[in-house]
């Protein structure tokens, strides 16, 4: 299980699409496809994050879970505005995007995680994993030896910046705290959910890259 997790994590965070941004060989039509689809994704992601916030608010644990998640929602508000301006910069129409199968599957997965019977520990683990994949992927494109094209720097900064890294570590801490207290049943569910997130992320990159 650990080996599988490790392999999938690498597949999700070092995908050929990301590597092509990092080495400057990226096909701009792939980038545009990703941009249009990711805008759709982010709009679906907001209600999921809101559902995690509701679950956090029902926990009597101390801690600043609510503040961290609320901060995440606030940055999604900026992110939606960023997508709109970025899309107009690249001439990507956002209003009539044909939602790709991989995106639909990912939405359906998120909808299931929004159900009240899904444990907070499972939902927050998924939330952390979704954010962490983007953070690790785009931070890789900002490393000193990367050749990321200047017009894509802004995109990489959005998720690869140090503040976003700090936010992901806060989410990870919350998830770890919940998992330490979880029953073995919940732990298993969290583990399976984590792997599903990685699979959906790989499928999402595949779609951008045009190999799905
Ligand atoms: C497919 C996917 N996964 C994770 C993120 C990052 N979270 C919010 O922006 C994203 N934008 N898109």
UniProtKB/TrEMBL annotation:
Question: Known Gene3D superfamilies for this protein?
Answer: Heme oxygenase-like (1.20.910.10)
Looking up SUPFAM superfamilies in the UniProt record yields: Heme oxygenase-like
In the UniProt record, which is one GO cellular component term? cytosol
User: InterPro entries recorded for this chain?
Assistant: Haem_Oase-like_multi-hlx, TenA_E, Thiaminase-2/PQQC, Thiamine_Salvage_TenA
Residues at the catalytic site: 201
Tell me its EC number(s), please.
3.5.99.2
Q: Where does substrate bind?
A: 38, 79, 131
What one GO molecular function would you report for this record?
thiaminase activity
Listed GO biological process terms: thiamine biosynthetic process
Cite the annotated pathway.
Answer: Cofactor biosynthesis; thiamine diphosphate biosynthesis
- Give the similarity note: Belongs to the thiaminase-2 family.
Protein name from the UniProt record: aminopyrimidine aminohydrolase
Species the sequence originates in: Hevea brasiliensis (Para rubber tree)
